Structure formats: C-alpha cells, structure tokens
Amino acid sequence: MIADCKVGDAVSLEVKLTNRSKSAVGPFFLTVVPFQDYQNGVQNHDLQDAVTFIGSSTFYISSVNPTENSVCAGTLLFLYTGDFYLNIKFQDDSTGRDLPPAWFCLPSVHIKAQEPMEAAA
Known about the structure:
It is built from no helices and ten strands. With 121 residues, the protein is mostly beta strands. It has one domain: Immunoglobulin-like. The strands form two sheets. Strands 1, 3, 4, 6, 8, 9 and 10 form a seven-stranded mixed β-sheet that branches. The chain is elongated, with a radius of gyration of 17 Å. InterPro entries: Ig_TRAPPC9_Trs120_4th, Trs120_TRAPPC9.
C-alpha cells in the first residue's frame, strides 16, 4: 500500500485488527513504528526530527472477540519530504502464552511525503 501526503499536513491513520480465530484474543499493545528504508539493507528508525505523532503511537487492545474488530486511530505529521514506511507492531501483554514477544504485520505501509503545492501568484 502506498499513500501520498504533503509535508506539514496531518495524516490520519486507522488500523483495524480483525479476529478470525474461534476464541477471544488479547490483551495486546499495537505500536506504529515509522522508518526509512534506503533499499541497501539499511533502515533508519531515528526519525524524531522527520515524523511526529499527534497523540500516541501505541494503543492498548484489551480483547477482541471472534469475528469482531478493534480499531486504533491516530495522526502523523511528516516534517520533511521522502519515502517513509510504517510497521505495525503487536506485543502480547499477557504471560503464559506461547506467542512471540512481538510481531509485525506485513506489508509495511509506504508513505510518500511531498512538498506542499504553492499558491499561484
């Protein structure tokens, strides 16, 4: 998925988790992790000067029943032009289960932040 936005414009993000299993799942923490991929094996996760969240980048999901959804909504602000990616990371918040401590959704969301259009003189 590729989305375009303008530098300085707020970008709404909505992540929907659908439980397709036969039992309730949760609790989880869902975290949105922005990064840049330089396409040479190097990823830059140090983006505090390029991307900011309006509100939180982490959401708590207590439980999702079978066939139901949980929706997390947030807003990002891109301060510079470039190609950015968002990983959606889940972390299990309970003990005693055989789940990995954290896992990512695939594919990453690709966002192209572009210069804003200037008003014609």
